[in-house]
Design brief:
16 strands, Amidohydrolase, 2 domains, hydrolase activity, alpha/beta, Aminopeptidase
């Protein structure tokens, strides 16, 4: 049995001042991927105050899984990410980051805050006997950056075994291009596969005055770059979602010396395994141009997050809950973009979905994530809490039938 919709929104709004305090504390003290120790300590303190959770710490580094269980019913998970970004904050707010060069510029401070708020309300429901099943509150480190093994926090969470019994998992992400009081949902692939590539074009180099005596990797690179930039428009079906971008080109140290090699680094984004494989294969074919020009190449591809795949039934549940809690809430249905989200590792293994929660400040929907001036409208915090709380009740009430 779940609580009534009006009660959840009212209870969430009642928490607003506490939510703002928590969010501003977390914003003031951001920590980078795999370094979230004080963040974890703070979350643990808030959770322990409820005196109802079975808490596991030290997961995937500094991750936390807090379990609330009635002993019967399905097991579901609600996840928030914990880490910040290496960005110098330029917001000018009084609670600006006190860690130079580190900033919560992707809303993870808000995600943690809303999950803590949902945990508080669901703990209250547990004490009143209104929980039938098990809820795991997942505070996941290292969403933004992989370690030396190429892994972010989500795959480590899965490897730990702490969340492998989940029958469903949900999450939210703040969205500065939507107004506060709006959400964005999408079924199926919703954020991109991420693959970064490192291509080295090798020649022999030589004296700038005698280019004919050697093989010039910069000259070869000019053909490779044309091939890469023409790849999407001429080799990929325009109905498919995929792109490739070059972020770095390095070659040479002197104006009169032809270098021996040129380094090209970039990123590949796609929504499906088929397009992911195609883009890598096409990049390999383009790199082979160097062989016909007298050079050779090496290509390394670093596989990152898989595409975020949103379960259709759980996404429908998001819409139903939003309509019931906030009857006038605008709901937009479209993919979330070409960014990456390591929650995709979890939805690959467990039926799950994420929704985007509007947080535009002062009605300005031109904002974006990962910027030095990123801020949110804190009116979004209780809305996120209410949606996560009611979605948790709804998943438990359906006893595993909805998302299968």
């Amino acid at each position: 049995m779940r609580t009534e919709e009006w009660d959840i929104t009212k209870r969430s709004e009642f928490l607003k001042s506490d939510l703002i305090d928590i969010r501003r504390h977390l914003h003031r003290f951001p920590e980078l991927s795999f370094e979230e120790k004080k963040t974890s300590d703070f979350i643990l303190e808030v959770l322990e105050a409820e005196q109802v959770f079975d808490i596991q710490t030290g997961i995937a580094g500094h991750g936390i899984v807090a379990t609330l269980s009635s002993g019967s019913g399905p097991t579901i998970g609600v996840r928030a990410d914990m880490d910040a970004l290496p960005i110098v904050e330029q917001t000018g707010v009084e609670y600006t980051s006190e860690h130079p060069g580190v900033m919560h510029a992707c809303g993870h401070d808000a995600h943690m805050t809303m999950l803590l708020g949902a945990a508080k309300l669901l703990a209250e429901d547990y004490k009143e006997g209104r929980i039938s099943g098990t809820i795991k509150f997942i505070f996941q480190p290292a969403e933004e950056k992989a370690d030396e093994y190429g892994l972010t926090g989500a795959p480590y969470m899965l490897r730990s075994g702490a969340i492998n019994d989940l029958e469903a998992a949900i999450a939210l992400h703040v969205c500065p291009w939507r107004n506060t009081g709006e959400i964005q949902i999408n079924k199926g692939p919703s954020m991109a596969n991420i693959d970064n590539f490192f291509l080295t074009i090798n020649g022999t180099g030589g004296h700038g005055g005698y280019p004919y005596q050697g093989t010039d990797p910069i000259w070869m690179t000019s053909f490779v770059l044309q091939g890469i930039y023409g790849l999407i428009s001429r080799r990929v079906n325009p109905l498919d979602v995929g792109t490739i971008s070059i972020g770095e080109v390095h070659g040479g140290l002197s104006s009169n010396v032809i270098p021996e090699s040129v380094q090209i680094n970039g990123t590949i984004r796609s929504y499906t395994p088929e397009v992911r494989s195609q883009l890598i294969d096409e990049l390999q074919s383009i790199a082979k141009i160097t062989e016909s020009l007298g050079g050779y190449y090496t290509l390394d591809v670093e596989h990152g997050e898989p595409a975020l795949h949103n379960n259709a039934d759980i996404t429908d549940m998001f819409r139903e809950v939003a309509n019931e809690l906030y009857p006038h809430m605008p709901i937009y249905e479209e993919p979330f973009g070409m960014g990456g989200e390591d929650f995709g590792h979890i939805t690959n293994d467990i039926p799950g979905a994420m929704f985007f929660l509007g947080c535009a400040l002062n009605g300005d929907t031109t904002g974006s994530l990962h910027t030095s001036d990123f801020q949110i409208n804190e009116d979004a915090l209780p809305i996120g809490v209410a949606l996560l709380t009611e979605c948790s009740h709804r998943l438990l009430a359906n006893n595993g039938k909805l998302w299968r």
